[in-house]
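Reviewers asked in the last cycle whether our approach scales beyond single polypeptides. To address this, we selected a multi-component target totalling 716 residues and predicted its structure end to end. The input consisted of the following lines:
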Amino acid sequence: MTPQAKSGPRRKKTIVAVASLVAAGTLLSTVGASTAGAATALAANNSAYIKADLKAPSASIQAAGSTFVQPFFTSAFYAYTGKNPGVQVNYQGVGSGQGITSFEAGTVNFAASDVPMAAADLAKVPASSGPVIQVPDTLGGVTVSYNLPGVSKQLRLDGPTLVGIFEGTITKWNASQIKATNPGVALPAQAIVPEVRADSSGTTYIFTNYLNSLGGPAATAWTLGVSKTIAWPSSAVQSPKNSGVAASIKSTPYSIGYVELAYAIQNKFSFAAVKNKAGVFVSPSLKSVASDAATNTSLSPTNFSIVNGPGKGSYPIAGYSWAILLQKQTNATTGAAVVKVLDWTTHTGGGQSLAAQLDYVPLPPGVQNQVRTSLLTVKGPNGKALLTK
Amino acid sequence: MPEPGRGAKRGGRFALSNGVYRGLLAAVVAIFVAVVVWYIVSIIAQARPAFSTLGFSWIIQETWNPNKSQFGLLPFILGTVETTAIALVLAVPIGLGTALALAYLVPHRFRAALSSAVELLAAVPSVVFGLWGLVVLAPLFREHVEPFLTSALGWTGLFNGPNEGVGLLLAGVILFIMILPTMVAISRDVLAVVPNEQVEGAMALGATRWQVLRKVVVPGSRTGLLGAFTLATGRALGETVAVALVIGNSPYIAHSVKSAAATLPSLIVNNFGEATGTELSALFGAGLVLLVIGIAVNAAARMLVRSSARSGGGSDAVASAASVAVA
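The resulting structure, written as structure tokens, was:
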């Protein structure tokens, strides 16, 4: 090949790259414009961030917790600091449990957890600190992703089959239960390798919460409990973090595991359509998860489960992530910055508009209103509300 | 040595500076000892609640299920010892061979390049080894290495079960790669300081190059080689992230070297973030057990060298010179 012949496609590539850069730039500027427009238009509406959010006093905020929300928080807080350079949020994704422990010890301004603090955890917060406020900050789906060479059609799985696979009673891909929901698919006679989380994880909690919610006869009911850590059967391969499970599924043919939606989309995994309460097989997507979340109309820190929601379009494996803060802030400046950052992060036009770009599901408008109502009750040391409309 | 006359004149100042140096060194040693003691005492203190709720037997129980307050450490102890054993079986001959070659056999102009290649391996972060193992080696092991070993060595009964890629074998091999630079770099330096007179003397007596290495160089470096072995073992026992990525983290006793398993450090790193109460205390207990295993390995290796020195009667002066080089 002559050098000239080589340079042809290369030049073409450069042109394509430049064109896509320009396109991306235009796209970004449109998004920016529409965001600004939305802010002014929806200022009166609860489900949009309020302009006063961006007038937070200069402060350095410490926060820690869930790794599930970390990519979202990192982008959201980066964008916030860009608009309001005085405010720095240092969010450490150390895990939900560690975040709660730090919150109880008073070393962080707010924590994030995939499961709200239970009564036993709340009891560990010193009484002098006053009540604890817990608000949803984002919404995520959990996919059942698999690596099944030779099968290109999307698998359809129902709850009892998933129970069997992850309890280790369904061991082959061509088992009758899998065949029953996938007619016409040539399933291989290979052993199933279940891939699960080795570390304690909110993703595990949401997944087992779903399996447990199925109930049913003793023969097919989930027996391993609902928890962030599970005593998995010995056939399961356990990897740390969402990224570890994702990497393991990718490199292991005939494996199947539960992976958070954003990770599954970014890794271009094949994931199963799961049969929902209405009997419809639904593929996980931002839309089907939002539809599932909308079915819990009385969301609260004690009624937080949204798995297996009714509705034909609902994807049944989903959960909220929660931000946790004290109602009585000890420092007026930092406290005001915390509520303003959280309000901006949890509302349309602010953080929630970034969420969809990162494959997180934006909070439904009703939930955004609920978050605003809760954040309005947060007070400074002088008893004055810190979030002003 | 100073001249007697001038030394006498400066005697006072020497005594003073001597005292200052001695004091400084004593302080440095005291800080070091204090940190070690403090560390051990606080680990014991953190692990105590687990011992008081569960007694002592939990350490050798088989079941790890925090949801049911079962914190048996036996599968993890076995996993730790097994992965380290696999790593050492590979690292001792290969590491020693490489070190001998670098110190005596490789032509001078290649030594620098080879040595820096070895040291480059030492600088790779462990998580990168882990990811490499998971993404590159695991498929290779599943498709080629494990089927081959199963057909060649299946009769030993060590290679039963499916080829999963991740598991004890892969973790051991990753550890081997990680401890190789430690083995090679220290062994090479130790072997290189064997006095030339001894080597030349042996050659003058008509010994072949192989005999010189086997009868003079290696026995003379025994203590220093032990240092290399101990440091490498310590690293293998304590490696966390890389092992957690490639071992499969299955809290059950492995019945085959291909099985997924778990080690004490991988248990700690996976569960530490969310552990509270007895579980957290049990994880500190796991750290304590790891410390005890490390001390036991160290003591056993020392005894081995001492007994072989007595029976073999190798040159102890050289051995101690070599151990100084290690220190």
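Chain A touches chain B at residues 94-98, 101, 191, 193, 198-201, 225, 227-232, 234, 236-240, 244, 247-248, 250-252 (CB under 8 Å). We regard this as preliminary and will revisit it once experimental data from Aim 1 are available.
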